[in-house]
């Protein structure tokens, strides 16, 4: 479990996200394109989780990537009309629910195929879907804001489950 590359990867990703990198006369930031920030954040954390396990499992990598991509996209909803950052909610507007539902179904379907039905995966799916479908008006975020913290709690249980199987 003691893999020093994991914190280095996360620190480097955080630095590139906040500061960017300059190559010759061009600067590159992770915030520069639709979904890039979400994909990089989802991959760096999901890779860290999957790589930390005793044996690398691509299903875990894919599951966590999709869930973390979803959660970061949900958080982008709150700033959709406030900032100038290119986000998926700005691009898709009201169709964002379709994308998030598809990601949620895909992530859980893959996990169900590998690990079977269990209470943790079912609960994770239901809570994620409630968060996606609950956005009725532009400023309604109560369940959306709380869902990622619930997901983190479920991820810890799921991670523990996966470590012992």
Describe the structure.
It is a single chain. The chain has 165 residues and is mostly helical. It has one domain (5-163). The protein is 68% helix and 4% strand. The chain contains seven helices and two strands. It has helices at 5-18, 36-52, 58-76, 88-92, 96-115, 119-133, 142-163, and strands at residues 21-23, 26-28. Strands 1-2 form a two-stranded antiparallel ribbon. Helix 3 runs antiparallel to helix 5 (96-115). It is flat, with a radius of gyration of 17 Å. It starts with a helix and ends with a helix. The relative contact order is 0.11. The model is unreliable at 136-146 (pLDDT under 50).
Task: List the strand order in the largest sheet.
Answer: 1-2
The radius of gyration is 17 Å
**Domain module tally:** 1
Biggest sheet descriptor: 2 strands, antiparallel
> How many individual β-strands?
2
Shape: flat
How far apart are the termini? 16 Å
Q: Oligomerization state of this entry?
A: single chain
Number of helices: 7
The ordered string of helix (H) and strand (E) elements is HEEHHHHHH
Low-confidence stretches: 136-146
Q: DSSP strand (E) fraction?
A: under 5%
Structural class: mainly alpha
Fraction of helical residues: 55-70%
Task: Give a brief outline of the structure.
The chain is mainly α and 165 residues long. The chain contains seven helices and two strands; from the N terminus they run αββαααααα. Helix content is 68%, strand content 4%.
Write the layout of secondary structure elements.
Elements (H helix, E strand, L loop, with lengths): L4 H14 L2 E3 L2 E3 L7 H17 L5 H19 L11 H5 L3 H20 L3 H15 L8 H22 L2
Antiparallel strand pairs: 1-2
Helix pairs in contact: 1-2, 2-3, 3-5, 5-6, 6-7
